[in-house]
Amino acid sequence: MGHPDLAVVTGAFGYTGGYIARRLIDRGVRVRTLSRRPAGRSPLGALVETVPLDFSDPDGLCRSIEGAGVLYNTYWIRYARGRMTFDRAVENSGTLFEAAVRAGVGRIVHLSVSNPSHDSRLPYFRGKAQVEEMLKGLGVSYAVIRPTLIYGGGDLLLNNIAWALRRFPVFLVYGSGDYPVQPVFVEDVAVQAVDAGSQGENVVADAAGPEIFSFEELLRLLASAMGVRARLVHAPPTLGLALTQLVGRVKGDLALTRDEVEGLMAGLLTSRGEPTGATKLSDWLKENADGLGRSYVSELRRNWRLSR
User: Fold this and answer.
1) 267 exposure class (CB count in 10 Å sphere: 0-12, 13-18, 19+)
2) pTM (two decimals)
């Protein structure tokens, strides 16, 4: 089954959406993006058609999606801020899906998260499960891709951990540090998503890399690859989070949330299935460690302060 000629990608000027859009363009697919931000300096600005992602205008969303064979959805929020709650993000996702169905989209490829659960007390993972359930009930062909910890050039979490390892003589490890994490390369996720857009069957699949580390092992791997000496000190999660958030405030950002720390420590950034990505973090670092963590990547600037 070939890929339709036109695809809509939410957030092509963002991180994962950008890699998906590039992969589609490389395959000769025309891309239209629904974006909350202007193209700005994005190299994709001249390569994609840009339409505002406006959840308050369902009819406009429908018109923006018309003609596309596949919708790739990367829309979500890392944390609640002001009126933008996780419940609102779930509602917005439903509005987008319904608009896509009305527009005649034949398939929706949705980027979720590893280990979502309706029973989770963490709203990020609970909301992701609710969005998946909505998608499955639409009656349209779908693929749900559940990434673990996405990394690559310009990512937030791994880059900012590396940034801290480069700058501080002590790095506080949340609790024991023995909880597992399974990094997956962002380009591998994009390939998996675009391949899923060319298929017809309904599928739910993890996107996971070939290596699993304890969190402490991950920190030591990063420090070694970058050639920095950082003393790892185990601390209660509340203390580690407080200091992390203090650094975030100094940078004008929210570096990490309590829910993200709890999800990490619960091992939710791993897969129970076979790896889908071929790229090993340990190999990627051999080529990219020198540039990792050289500058801080702000979540607020990237995804909230859209005019900057």
Assistant:
1) middle
2) 0.96
